[in-house]
């Protein structure tokens, strides 16, 4: 029997729903699944199915996320102080606003490992500000000025950062679009942090200060967009669009937010993405989640592509000129986006 993508997705969501919903909902879910392959459905009943599958969580649209990724890449590398960076910052704030968020901009001059002043901008979109219970979703939007994991002649070439940067932001923009259509029960904040990827390059031989990565989130951690900002937990998306991506337990997340790690990986498994979210240990990574936890005491989970075969632990295109749009895989976007949606719509 032929199954269209959307039908498979709906069926997966229903498997998940069957576990958590009442008998009535299960019966309705049965209706949805049984529609599979039937050619005698009227348009009316298709509409009804959509509504049923949307009670618990919306369906994440990977084409839409891909489009937001491509829009970022088209600006060119979003290296702080560049024109592309400036324009892309405007674009991201505009999109969050268009999707109904209240947008906060944090401008800061941040000092890079080599003393360069980075004109930085953290962009935060807020939904349901009255809600006490909040979840913070975040990604970095800047891109690396160096392909220092590539062959030597490319070391000083800025990367497109389709995966490293744009993928997390693209998924979060699609989630923002879904939130505007159907609000979850809790408050959501979406933060796009700047100056994550200006960390010390492999080729640098000079002296440097520690903590050279994640400058935007370090700044926000010390001075959040709202005084005393708190969230129940945070989810960081980093390199979430690569081909054949696999996500393992990241070490720091496991030590500081293990209950959230479990929740995410179990949710992924229950909707059919157990092969993408592998329930095994990966590496421990210096990333934005460390500073959000350290400075704001918010337990955070880093969903980051882990590959044990590349030597770096990262995906094969990491910090190379191959980190471009041709290496973005919609199947990965779908797995990550739908999983995060399921998690936030099931928070109460
Ligand atoms: C380190 O290489 C120490 N951290 C990598 C964090 C990162 C860079 N994520 C994306 N690009
Ligand atoms: Zn990077």
- Specify the helix fraction band: 40-55%
Q: Could you tell me how far the N terminus lies from the C terminus, measured between alpha carbons in angstroms?
A: 38 Å
Using the alpha-carbon principal axes, give the shape: globular
Helix and strand sequence: HHHHHEEEHEHEEHHEHEH
Unreliable segments of 5+ consecutive residues: 1-55
**Class computed from helices, strands and strand pairing:** alpha/beta
Would you tell me the overall average pLDDT? 88
Radius of gyration: 20 Å
Largest sheet: 6 strands, mixed
Please give the oligomerization state of what you see.
single chain
Question: What would you note in describing this structure?
Answer:
By secondary structure, the chain is of the alpha/beta class. It has eleven helices and eight strands. The longest helix is centred in the middle third of the chain and has 20 residues, at 162-181. 47% of the residues are buried. Residues 1-55 have low confidence and may be disordered. N-[2-(1H-imidazol-4-yl)ethyl]acetamide binds at residues 164, 197, 199, 213, 238, 285-287. Zinc ion is lined by residues 144, 164, 197, 319.
Tags for this entry?
disordered N terminus; two-stranded parallel sheet; 348 residues; binds zinc ion; alpha/beta; 6-stranded mixed beta sheet
Helices and strands, with pairings:
Elements: H1 5-20, H2 23-34, H3 43-54, H4 62-74, H5 83-98, E1 102-111, E2 117-127, E3 134-140, H6 162-181, E4 187-193, H7 215-222, E5 233-238, E6 247-249, H8 251-256, H9 258-270, E7 277-281, H10 288-296, E8 300-304, H11 330-345
Parallel strand pairs: 3-4, 3-5, 5-8, 6-7
Antiparallel strand pairs: 1-2, 2-4
Helix pairs in contact: 1-2, 4-6, 4-11, 6-11, 7-10, 9-11
Zinc ion is lined by residues 144, 164, 197, 319.
